[in-house]
Design goal:
87 residues; alpha+beta; 25% strand; 4-stranded mixed beta sheet; Glutaredoxin; 3 helices; 41% helix
């Protein structure tokens, strides 16, 4: 997997907890960015026009995808599309 998965979360957000659990269950590596307790993460969140948590950014080469909310189907679709182009 060549993608970088970055998840912007609020630690008390139910969907954020669900997303992290799902990513862990699927063995999908990710970078967690806490927008409540980390000012640098909060600034980065604003720079990507983030408004809702969780927001997931998936970067694959020059392609960037943004998934808002807990949407495992969309994340799987993006990751599988990129696997197909890698072959």
């Amino acid at each position: 997997m060549n993608e970088v998965v970055k998840v912007f979360i609020n630690p008390t957000c139910g969907p954020c907890i669900n997303l992290k659990e799902w990513l862990d269950e699927k063995d999908i590596p990710y970078i967690q960015r806490d927008v409540v307790n980390n000012q640098e993460a909060a600034t980065e969140f604003k720079e990507i026009d983030g408004q809702f948590t969780p927001t997931t950014l998936i970067t694959s080469g020059d392609e960037k995808y943004k998934v808002i909310g807990f949407n495992p189907q969309k994340i799987e679709r993006i990751l599988s599309l990129n696997e197909e182009t890698d072959n």
